[in-house]
Amino acid sequence: MTAETATPFHDLDHYVALRRLAGLWLAPDGSRLVAAAQQLAPDRKKYVTSLWQVDPSGARPARRLTRGTTGEGGVAFLPDGSLLFVAKRPHEEWPEPPESARSGNTDDTEDPGSAEAPTGDGNDADKPALWVLPAGGGEARRVVARPGGVSGVMVARDAGTLVFSAPTLPGTKSADDDRERRKARTDASVSAILHESYPVRYWDHDLGPDEVRLFAADAFDVDEGHPRPRDLSPEPGRALDEGAADVSADGRTVVSTWKVATRQGDHRVDLVEVDTETGERRVLATDPDHDFEAPRISPDGRWVACTRERRSTTEAAGDVTLWLVPTNGGEQRDLTPELDLWPNEPRWSPDGHTIYFTADERGHSPVFAVDVATGCVRRLTASGAYAAVEPAPDGRSLYALRNAVDSPPSIVRLAVDAVDQEAERLRGPEATPTLPGRLTEVTATAQDGSDLRAWLVLPDGASAQEPAPLLLWIHGGPLSSWNTWSWRWNPWLMAARGYAVLLPDPALSTGYGQEFVDRGWGRWGAEPFTDLMAVTDAALEVPEIDAGRTAAMGGSFGGYMANWVAGHTDRFKAIVTHASLWALDQFGPTTDVASYWFRELTPERALANSPHLSVEQITTPMLVIHGDRDYRVPIGEGLRLWWELNRLHDGDPAELPHRFLYFPDENHWVLSPHHAKVWYSTVFAFLSWHVEGAGWERPELV
């Protein structure tokens, strides 16, 4: 590969240094966009997020707004255009006295800014605080700090009422109380958590001892004032964990998800309305058979749009629709009854007549518009996957982040009155790397006659005369789709090493209708497996593919399928299994949300679909990868798989064909840039050994 033809994907150092978009927000008057972009810290050991101003007209280049050493996020705009953001930053001015010294203060009045200098344990110095950057420019100023940090910031569009969430120790009555209890735990070296409900963990972090609470504060003067937050949920338990909320334009109410514990360690998700003055709470939507998520309040405050998901059972998969809830307690209704897709991320038009949303659809995730009065649905975009949709206040445009399997996220503008349009790209801070290949599609027919499709990445130089080895890459989820760009699971890094990469959507994938999901529900080792093999067979008919050099790889559910493939076929020369489910009877009770698991797989089904029962049939070399801080697929799965592969190897230990890459301090995804490089370097070496016959070369640093 010459310097002229090399791409960032040919060099891992270059690749991890690419700037990456991570969020988008529009100012209330539509005059500017703010984007979040991640890039390497100076020590190259982590990513930090900075905020950039983007011109909605596309005329001016993006301009960097923040340069904090630990990064910024959690963006919201005040009505005057001032920018709120969350960050960990040094704070050297404390204009207000301590909470206990303020005259007239009571135990249930929250600290607006934390007055103590951050000099000891139990203070707010190392937690994210809320900062404001005035619309007219100047220095950012800290306006709210909490002992457990600040997150989930929202602002009422018209009134300027501030709403945020903050982790708070149970039973505490004030910020000072919370701070003192944290200091006492630190001084006593106590990290124990006493749980009174399930679950106890989520993906890669513990739930507790903090409880998430909602706080509200009236509009404040950007230059001088400090908001005085009111606790809206003093005893929430686990109700607000991983929740979502929205605040009305007049600032009087917050609509939030609210988890309600049910039998056998499960829970349902309701919608509640909370008065921002009194904290009075009432239920807007509840149903024992459905969960309500992603609430958005209409501009006039009369309606809440949300997603309603049918709770899965062992007999039926979940189903998602766009749901309309009147705030006055009237009749609720389904806005998309005829749409055989799963809507998400609803956003209201400024006039309240239209709701915009996205939904997976056949390898894409377009933007759709539904007329609230008629239920008529239009698809606005032709290709790509969209997120962070922001309607312009003039009602004529939408702004969003667009990405695709062959395109990293970029900032785009859409016309609201067009259908199947190609988005107009704006001048953002994101990277636009040259790809080392091209993207095409493969189609096939399943054993039951279902139509199947997959993306196929072909590397530069692949031809019928010089065919490329094939890597089958199985997506996670399993309720997911290969339709977006992924910085973590990136096929173009493999293409740069000469591999064609097959990205199929088998049974259980989203974007192909409810029946396509249902056909794989509770049958992980059946249709999902046979679909993968059918699409692989079709890919091997492509002239640019070398059928004699194939491998398979997957993470999470994809890792489960990689393990299942290993025990049910010997057609591949190597298999890479990351964060994989191995013994389903063991996995079910130990994953972070076991209650969801048992709504799909009974103990009998779990055993019938468990890869570990076919370990005796595995002859393909396997690279096992797992992070110790993975709570979704606990490390015991990887440890047991690695032991059983070793137990069955009767030959010389020095000739063991398998390898185990273990990350003691990584989670489900392996996110730090230096460990991502180790991950890919090890995968490259393993595939080169078994697919290319190059011999084993241990990667550096491991």
UniProtKB/TrEMBL annotation:
Superkingdom classification of source: Bacteria
BP terms from Gene Ontology: proteolysis
Domain Peptidase S9 prolyl oligopeptidase catalytic: 485-691
Renumbered residue ranges of the record's region Disordered: 91-131, 166-186, 223-248
Pfam families the UniProt entry points to: PD40 (PF07676), Peptidase_S9 (PF00326)
Biased composition (Basic and acidic residues): 223-241
Keywords: Aminopeptidase, Hydrolase, Protease, Serine protease
GO molecular function per UniProt: aminopeptidase activity; serine-type endopeptidase activity
PANTHER family linked to this entry: ACYLAMINO-ACID-RELEASING ENZYME, SERINE PEPTIDASE S9 FAMILY MEMBER
Official protein name in the record: Dipeptidyl aminopeptidase/acylaminoacyl peptidase
